Amino acid sequence: MLLGVDYYPEQWDPARMEADMDLIREMGGNAIRIAEFAWHRMEPEEGRYDFSFFDRVIALAKKKDLRVILGTPTAAVPAWLVRAHPDILSQFENGQPRAFGGRHVCCYNSPWLYEYSEKIIRAMVSHYRDEPQVAAWQIDNEIGHEESDLCWCPRCQEAFRRFLHEKFGGDVARLNEAYGAAFWSQEYNGFDEIPLPSATITTHNPALRLDWERFRSQSLCGFLDFQARLIRELAPRAVIIHDFPGGGLDKSVDYAGAAKCLDVAAYNNYPVWGGQKQPLPPHEIAFGLDHIRGLKRQNFWITEAIMGAQGHDVTGYLPRPGQAKLWSWQAMAHGCEAMLYFRYRGAVKGAEQFCYGILDADNRKGRKFYEVQSFFREVPQYARALETPIHSDVAIVYDYDSLSSFRIQRQSLLLDCPGEMKKLYKAFYDVNVPVDVIPAEADLSGYQIVLLPQLTVVKPEFRAKAERFVREGGTLVLTFRTGVKDPNNNLFFGEVLPVGYAGLAGVMVAETESLQEANAFPVAGEGAFAGTEGYGGVFRDMLEAREAEVLYRYGDPFYTDFAAVTRKKQGQGAVYYLGCSLDEGTTARLMETILAERGIETVSSPEGVEIVTRGGAGQRIRMLMNHNAFGAEALGVKLPPYGCVIERL
After folding, report:
1. Tens digit of pLDDT for each residue in 611-629?
2. By CB count within 10 A, which of 92, 428, 561, 640 is most buried?
3. In this structure, are residues 536 and 584 in contact, taking their beta carbons and an 8 Å threshold?
4. E-assigned strands of 39-167?
């Protein structure tokens, strides 16, 4: 189990290095992550490679028994490269190049980026491939973060046109038909007429914009894959990771696609950032962890965990005593099996001066140091349990194209697709039922309950997989705005909604409505839910139940004839359809019913207390985590504020 810190020795007096590593060891660390932003230190001039500094770092790390995660430095190119090839810089939408001085400022379709990245990576890997102290190679840093996927340069325009030329087999008439380009006289005579979807009057064609999203993702995934293949060519036994930033379901880069070239997915876990008044709610932190675990359906690493307040220009909330340590335990509970904190010591120069570390600029051991030390001393005794795979009976499935479609046409000002996933997730989290958050490409077998929120783009291969899942006895949960668009992001002609799923769910959507309130109308229960009431909003499908049982009906005037929630039983399987965004209480009531139908055990705990069981035959533990700022009790165990108690089973 790797436990350690993100260390940037090039930012400090080299005379401090030995004392720093001694302190990391005193803290209980056994690993450091280095070099991810140190291109200039390793290649100060074009073609002059100098690894002597990091040779000393790694030699000292070996002496101190610290493993090394070595980063390729391609997220921050050196100034000499930009001076030699200024067109390597990406461009804003107005055509202005991004200035050198930030990070991720290069165009991912630049041949210069590929050429010089290959040179530095070949030199690095050739130099360090036989170094046993290197535990893993991290390729690049936080791909797609901070809108670095967006570039509007002429090179991207040409690459986008080539992407479309390949997709449509060189036949622009096929593209015109697929895009419905007769609308607003958008027919193209050739691929060289196709624009980038930059600012215009009204909006660009939704089909064009979806392909633009796909192109941007492909550009970034291709850059990671290029690096991974290069490292494997030179060092076939290398362990390759990438550190994904949070909020992946809101980004245009497809994390699941990017993770395909990796041995291990890694995550930079920031429950709070500069300017936030409070951290994310515990279930949202857990959702992010489960999303990363779902990328490869295996345990993951955390390469940046916080201990101090964070922020670039605006600093933020300081985790309360014990709270950041609790987030570390929570990460372990959800499948993390290597933990590194960002950062060992806070910077005194540069853009991240207010990203506080374990040590602050005063360079003194304080509460944060001892909190990390206690975690590093405690966690290894549970390594066997924490390194076992996690089994979940429940999965929430997301589809990259569907999420992109809603970014392009939101349809409701309040519709937040990741937020709707998290609302469903919370219903399981609150009763301590583990959930996998997985891409639509993943295998559904082995799950008992699968939720498909806002699966708006219809893909025949996935529909067949969903039908098979129900036929084999699974419970499927569909939501409003299912089956609305074809793979070109167009509506269907002559088909009833949800297209492809109407027979499976036993419903037809008669009409739809976007709402501007979360609790815009009442819903009234029927049958087993008779006497219960709730609220819905954001968006709603007016459901005609054809072969399905009505569980809730809309309770506002004019729409009482329409169902809000239905269930269709099919042998041992069942399909639920949630026609609107339901309030949290009604959502929880429905999910508890589904869990009971499936015979899945739930565990009650006070609000803010999370209970997770991990391990197997070799070691089993139960983790009781109190996310509250006050004491709590669960299963007869008293928990201090932000405390974690681990019981051996």
Report:
1. 999 999 999 999 999 999 9
2. 428
3. no
4. 67-71, 134-138
Q: How far apart are CA 282 and CA 333, in angstroms?
A: 13
d(CA 568, CA 545): 9
Q: Which residue among the candidates 43, 213, 284, 304 is catalytic per the annotation?
A: 304
Sign of CA dihedral 349, 352, 353, 355: negative
- From CA 124, how far away is CA 72, in angstroms rounded? 8
Q: What's the pLDDT tens digit per position in 257-272?
A: 999 999 999 999 999 9
Q: Is-catalytic flag, 142?
A: yes
Q: Which of 36, 142, 337, 610 is catalytic?
A: 142
Note the pLDDT of residue 290.
98
Q: Tell me the torsion sign for CA atoms 133, 270, 343, 100.
A: positive
pLDDT for the residue 278: 96
Question: What are the Cα distances from residue 566, in Å, to 472, 497, 575?
Answer: 20, 15, 8
Those residues with Cβ within 8 angstroms of residue 171's Cβ, 6 or more apart along the chain or in another chain: none
| Residue ranges of the chain whose pLDDT lies below 70 | none
What stretch of H or E contains 41?
Answer: helix 39-42
The beta-strand segments (E) located in 260-345 are: 264-269, 300-306, 336-342
Note the pLDDT of residue 613: 98
With b for 16 or more beta-carbon neighbours within 10 A and e for fewer, the 575-598 pattern comes to bbbbbbbbbeebbbbbbbebbeeb
The pLDDT, as a whole number, for residue 316 is 87
Instruction: Reply yes or no on whether 213 is catalytic.
Output: no
